[in-house]
């Protein structure tokens, strides 16, 4: 970076907020000193500074990489020498939580967890929740349209965003902060930026819709004879619990047994069945969600949908069930290599998909370890494949096995995690040529020089 | 229209589907023989025909006006001599209702009511519901991002659309029919077309997310001392009923008394209070929604939020309550002129807004009749102003009174109904200059010749 460029950026954000050298160390998985190399890292303190920064960088033709909490899983934040990273960690102010309008207005650098806590003070809830809540920022959640465990009831981040402020690549501040649930006045432009992974502009402020925090939660683990019972069990639970069913997660027996063992948790049901489901019901003070959930499971047992079930009798038991679902990370260390995938499919095609993937994986010698689990109510499966061979050839073979069936089954190679840099070659699995061409045209009107998070999503 | 043009269009859709002359008569309110004048009306039978039509018309430079059920309220479907109307009434096939994936796949000319009935056969529900359901089409619902009575629980049409097929102005078929809840692979382009009022392309097919049909519904009417109690009553009901609260509507006392009288319904509560609310709770088979709703109202009474309440004891009583809410149309005939508005605001600003509007209307001589009611949980108010003077000057004065406060209070001049032709001058009330400029750029890449529903929304 030239000295005049550095001086110009320092004039905008202050000398202490223009950093050079080893920017992050190695604290974020997936990121390395190499792939976070950059000319500079700048930390603007407000929207006006972001605007001035982008105006300068865009005129100078310097590539820009926006950074939230660096918790993305598809290398959407990697940078190269010569790039300028715009890190929003200083823009971490919650402007207000309004208990009448039930909205949270905040700067984009606020972490999801901070937003959740501020909402809880008013007995309100940010419905989006992901494991990385402590570091992930609201701006990053918007940029990646984050999902999580409660999507089936409350939707993706897209469904919670009532307003956005975005600084466009050329520095223009686009204010769409109305915060209205209904505003059918012209095109809903904020939708363009949600899930665009920082390639169309930098989200600087958000208006998030809040929901009433549930007063009661009941959690159960159920065992089924096979995956075949999972879709009718979901339907059964949806019909019996209505809007009180807030989570429905599936675990294959191998995943269930393995994460329980690696988490030092005694499996609440013997790991001898064909499929497992976690059901969570949430309700208001007057709802007896425990009784409702138990009644739902009792009829499911009568109808042969499940073979066994346990309900959590304490918060510790509830946490144990969720730990079995969420603690996937130790699995990665069981084999020399382990690759994770995040696909989605119509639920009606899951069984077909799993059969194909399982049988083709079984043809590899030595047979890889295959785990599958996830948000089946949203048609979202997380897959993990552990292999004794860690070479690039094995990686490619497994990837092909996981992704190839998606095209004919109408699936997506990225349900929640986005495309970033890592999955660009998969965009055409889940998008038509016409769609990709139109994405490029949209990109071209907002970022004609191609400087904004260059190379991500569209390549 | 030239003879070769007519012949070319007849070759695409068949001679019987190219109509000239008096196209609709006067059956649709707001539309007249004059504002539905057109060179031709064509009725394509499938997507390939829509594509071929648009390809021809676009090359020939002939303006195109798409027509759904003509139930829009902002003159979004008006046409001029020389335009070609593309009417989708023949594309009325439901392709499938999938009870596992809980989606409906249909052509855009299917009416909302037909889609609702097909879903009900599987105990599923199309959550969007509007009074015009019998004529309004799914394509029109998408084009206008229709709202209705259940938005507070299920969202707008946008929140139910999992897939779209759109024919772009130049005839290209853009297939975005994945139907996946989660597909974070690139920009979510279908969002662009939802709510674009036919100005960016013609929606030809949709994938709609269905929800479980509630097994039980309970409805109540409550009276409050004044509007001041409405926001805390909403919060109270949301906290007590959670996801079971599916409708919360407000009626001002004058509207309540007048529609009851004009509907020949004995007001269930004397029309002597300051504000009225309709609460509806829906639940699963196991939910005692009647008891839940009554308990909610009992505590609201204890806390002074309401003064009186009645719950519907039969479907007839329930219908009576909803008729009082919905039967606004006879009010239009009470005065020589009556104008209707559809605005939205943060709920916290409603009282301030209503006070300003009421006091300025009171300064007009003779004082106009003012009614307000609507979906307060979504921040959406419908206003009606009846006047003894029906001239354009009075129309303008009243419009100014209704719309002017919105800008400072952060409201929208069109919550549900769209912009169409009628409200183009109001776009800048609820959108920034930057937003409007970007809308024009989006329009320019999809419709560079400006032929698609020309003049609507952006002018």
Count of strand segments of chain A: 18
Helix content of chain A: 25-40%
Oligomer: homodimer
The largest contact between protein chains, plus residue counts on each side, is: A-B, 96 and 97 residues
Estimate the global geometry of chain A from the Cα principal axes.
globular
Contiguous uncertain segments of 5+ residues of chain A? none
Largest sheet of chain A, in brief, is:
7 strands, antiparallel
Number of helices of chain A: 14
Mean pLDDT of chain A: 95
Give the distance, in angstroms, between the N- and C-terminal Cα atoms of chain A: 24 Å
Q: Radius of gyration of chain A from the CA trace?
A: 23 Å
Secondary structural class of chain A: alpha+beta
Strand-residue fraction of chain A? 15-25%
* Lateral arrangement of strands in the main beta sheet of chain A: 15-12-14-13-17-18-16
What does this structure look like?
2 copies of one chain form a homodimer. Chain A is of the alpha+beta class. In chain A, 32% of the residues lie in helices and 21% in strands. In chain A, the strands form 4 sheets. In chain A, strands 15-12-14-13-17-18-16 form a 7-stranded antiparallel beta sheet, with helices on both faces. In chain A, β8 and β9 form a beta hairpin. In chain A, α1 runs antiparallel to α2. The longest helix of chain A is centred in the last third of the chain and has 18 residues. Chain A is globular.
Per-chain topology:
Two copies of one chain form a homodimer.
Chain A: H1 3-13, E1 18-19, E2 40-42, H2 47-60, E3 64-67, E4 84-87, E5 94-98, E6 103-107, H3 112-120, E7 124-125, H4 138-144, H5 151-154, E8 161-167, E9 173-176, H6 190-193, E10 202-209, E11 211-212, E12 216-224, H7 230-241, E13 245-251, H8 253-262, E14 275-283, H9 289-302, E15 308-311, H10 315-326, E16 337-344, H11 350-361, E17 369-374, E18 380-387, H12 392-409, H13 427-430, H14 433-446
Parallel strand pairs in A: 2-4, 3-4
Antiparallel strand pairs in A: 1-2, 5-6, 6-10, 7-11, 8-9, 8-10, 12-14, 12-15, 13-14, 13-17, 16-18, 17-18
Helix pairs in contact in A: 1-2, 7-9, 8-10, 11-12
């Amino acid at each position: 970076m030239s000295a005049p460029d550095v001086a110009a950026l320092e004039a905008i954000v202050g000398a202490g907020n223009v950093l050079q050298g080893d920017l992050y160390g190695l604290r974020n998985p997936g990121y390395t000193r190499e792939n976070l190399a950059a000319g500079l890292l700048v930390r603007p303190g407000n929207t006006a500074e972001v605007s001035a920064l982008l105006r300068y960088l865009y005129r100078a033709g310097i590539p820009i990489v926006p950074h939230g909490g660096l918790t993305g899983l598809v290398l959407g934040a990697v940078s190269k020498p010569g790039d300028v990273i715009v890190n929003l960690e200083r823009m971490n102010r919650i402007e207000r939580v309004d208990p009448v309008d039930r909205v949270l207005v905040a700067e984009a650098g606020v972490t999801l967890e901070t937003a959740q806590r501020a909402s809880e003070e008013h007995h309100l809830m940010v419905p989006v929740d992901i494991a990385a809540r402590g570091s992930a920022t609201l701006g990053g959640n918007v940029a990646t349209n984050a999902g999580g465990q409660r999507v089936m009831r409350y939707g993706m981040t897209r469904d919670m965003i009532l307003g956005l402020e975005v600084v466009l690549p050329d520095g223009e501040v686009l204010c769409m902060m109305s915060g209205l649930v209904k505003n059918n006045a012209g095109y809903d432009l904020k939708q363009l930026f949600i899930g665009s992974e920082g390639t169309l502009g930098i989200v600087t402020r958000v208006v998030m819709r809040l929901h009433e925090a549930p007063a009661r939660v009941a959690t159960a683990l159920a065992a089924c004879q096979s995956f075949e019972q999972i879709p009718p069990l979901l339907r059964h639970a949806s019909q019996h619990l209505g809007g009180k069913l807030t989570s429905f997660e599936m675990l294959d027996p191998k995943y269930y047994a393995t994460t329980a063992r690696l988490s030092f948790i005694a499996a609440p049901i013997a790991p001898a069945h064909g499929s497992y489901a976690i059901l969570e019901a949430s309700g208001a003070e007057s709802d007896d969600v425990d009784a409702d959930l138990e009644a739902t499971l009792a009829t499911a047992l009568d109808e042969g949908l499940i073979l066994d079930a346990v309900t959590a009798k304490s918060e510790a038991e509830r946490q144990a069930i969720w730990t079995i679902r969420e603690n996937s990370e130790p699995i990665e260390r069981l084999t020399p290599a382990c690759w994770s995938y995040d696909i989605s499919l119509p639920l009606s095609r899951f069984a077909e998909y799993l059969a194909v993937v399982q049988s083709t994986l079984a043809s590899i010698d030595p047979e890889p370890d295959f785990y599958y689990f996830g948000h089946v109510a949203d048609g979202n499966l997380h897959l993990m494949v552990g292999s004794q061979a860690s070479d690039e050839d094995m990686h490619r073979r497994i990837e092909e096995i996981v992704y190839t069936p998606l095209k004919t089954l109408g699936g997506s190679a990225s349900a929640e995690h986005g495309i970033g840099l890592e999955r660009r070659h998969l965009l055409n699995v889940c998008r038509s040529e016409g769609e990709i061409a139109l994405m490029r045209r949209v990109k071209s009107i907002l970022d004609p020089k191609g400087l904004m998070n260059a190379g991500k999503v569209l390549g």
